[in-house]
Design brief:
Layout (H helix, E strand, L loop, with lengths): L10 H4 L1 E9 L5 E9 L7 E3 L6 E9 L2 E10 L7 E11 L2 E10 L7 E10 L2
Antiparallel strand pairs: 1-2, 1-8, 2-3, 3-4, 4-5, 5-6, 6-7, 7-8
């Protein structure tokens, strides 16, 4: 059995407030903007869409160069009245936060999963 690699990223590395963009999977269009608050521990992480209350985030793991964060279920910022749970993988790249996300919508429609990219810059 292989041991997990020692993390090369620490929660303290990303602690702060980030201006985030969620993009299409191809990364060619911004779907939504939001603010992410990251702390130096697993408590207190949030995402906040414009005009909405903060949504608590749960740090699932810190491995290698990546932090996995889950949020939800909460009302989607893209699909009115639909609940969604998101799982994001973030890493630091040249001072920015970058990564991928998967959104699972609580619907029976064929498009119940959305995959995309995300990027963010630290607020001053």
């Amino acid at each position: 059995m292989e041991e997990a690699a020692e993390p090369t990223i620490a929660l303290a590395d990303v602690a702060g407030t980030w201006s985030m963009e969620a993009l299409t999977e191809a990364g060619d269009s911004v779907l939504v903007t939001y603010e992410m608050v990251a702390t130096d521990n697993t408590e207190g992480w949030t995402i906040t869409f414009p005009g909405r209350d903060p949504i608590p985030g749960r740090v699932i793991s810190v491995e290698g160069d990546s932090i996995v964060v889950e949020a939800g279920p909460y009302e989607s910022a893209l699909r009115d009245g639909i609940m969604v749970t998101t799982r994001s993988v973030v890493r630091l790249q040249e001072g920015s936060v970058v990564g991928m996300f998967v959104a699972h919508y609580e619907t029976t429609e064929p498009d119940s999963v959305l995959r995309g990219q995300q990027r963010g810059t630290r607020q001053q």
